[in-house]
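Quick one: HD-GYP domain-containing protein from Alkalilimnicola ehrlichii, structure tokens please.
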Amino acid sequence: MAQRRALKRAAQTMLDTGRLGLAVSVDSAWACVETLATASAGHDAASLWLDELQARDPATHVHSLNVCLMTLAFGRYLGLDRDELEQAALGALLHDIGKLHTPLDILNKPGALSSEEFAVLRRHPEDGYRLLRECRQLPPIALSVVRDHHERVDGSGYPRGLCGSRIHTAVMVTAVADVYEAITSDRCYRSAMTPQQAVRILQAGAKHYGRDLIQEFVHFLGVYPDGSLVELTSGALAVVIRRQRLSTEAPVVLQLREPDGTVCDHRLVDLALLENVPGWQIKRTVEPAEVGIDTVPAAADGAELLMA
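--- reply ---
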């Protein structure tokens, strides 16, 4: 199918640019594509709507493919069962189909939207839900993803203001994938941000998505970039010196502070060798300004020690 080929191209692009993080291999990305192929079988009407979206708004179509891929990969990582995964994939692929009813001058506006324009844009989840419900083909979780992907667990989302357990896990997986993909893509009003910047934004707004889910997403991506400051489960602070593909959650770090906050002699620690030792796991990333640490010279010191 055409969408299958398009998703494979999207998968390769996201792998090449590192936006899928270190946790997703080429093989697992292709497995996600095959899951979508299975999920899409028999949904001809939905495929036609997607073809129309591609013709009318190519940028939203590419975004939909990328969100679908991210949803599949993250859902597999979380252990969603096959039926949930297939329904989530289908819903993610079609999550913005309601934008067929959104004027293009709003979708492609290079500046900030007015309150009236934003009100029109916010209609797209309900528009998409009504459009696809008429097909009488899509399973319930997929329809929930289309209607509810802008809902937030703290009740701050739209269109219905749902909160907590009233939002299906598959919906929130898609919501996180949607925001991450949007941040790391070029938009008509700004340039793409890095995966690391996207993670920081998601962490800052974790209450909207669920802190546990955001923590899982960080682990899934393996996004502890070189030079980032992290807090270990012991309370110690360290700067990441080198990421490791085979152990994405356990990079080589340079410890800067003891658990009690005192400055310590700088020492390199390979967290992969201490994965089963309590206290030596990464708990969270930390903004350097929050603790008064300049990570640039520390990272340079660590790089020198690593090469010694």
